Amino acid sequence: MYETIALIELAIWLGLPAWIANSMPVLFGGGRPIDNGRVFRDGRRILGDGKTIRGFVVGVFLGTMTGIGQSIAAPYLKPLLENYVVVTPSMEHVLYMSIPAAFLLSLGALTGDVIGSFLKRRIDIKSGNPSLVLDQLGFILVGLILASPILQPDAVYVIILVVTTLGIHWISNAVGYLLGLKKNPW
């Protein structure tokens, strides 16, 4: 039982830099769009007004800062974890989030979000309208891919993270909508 809880906690720990990076543009974005209002050859906006330079930069910065906090906290959390489970090298790999890994997870998360926005415009999904894979999973998958040269968690962490991301994404969007921070609850 404790091992399962530890796996879930560490999977969430793994996703924190990407989750923070992906959510911060909603709070701190605004300003000039990344695409500067330009349209692609198909006549549609490249990204849309929701993808801003400030949101991207602040998201990557705060996601990386989350990783710095994780790297500071990890030595204090390991003894707590050891009270309940035998900490394996795989667990330590996830627990000790490196700053470069946090940066790449954050950069990848927002790059995945931008790629998703670009693809949504190409298939004529309007800004703010939902797309399961592009909205809920694109950011976490691209974050993990970009960080993969230095961060290779066991598959179980990735699977738990993906499933958890779906749930957290749905809940955070609903809360953002209820708080008036998002135009749609998805």
Computed structural class: mainly alpha
Number of helices: 6
- Please, what is the average pLDDT? 90
CA-atom Rg in angstroms: 17 Å
Give the SSE layout:
Layout: H1 2-28, H2 53-82, H3 89-95, H4 99-122, H5 132-147, H6 155-178
Helix pairs in contact: 1-2, 1-4, 1-6, 2-4, 4-5, 5-6
Explain what the structure shows:
Helices cover about 70% and strands about 0% of the residues. It has helices spanning about 1-30, 55-80, 90-95, 100-120, 130-145, 155-180. Helix 1 crosses helix 6 (about 155-180). The longest helix has 30 residues, at about 55-80. The model has no long low-confidence stretch (mean pLDDT about 90).
Sum up the structure in keywords.
69% helix; 6 helices; mainly alpha; 186 residues; single chain
Summarize this, please?
The chain is mainly α and 186 residues long. It has helices spanning 2-28, 53-82, 89-95, 99-122, 132-147, 155-178. The mean pLDDT is 90.
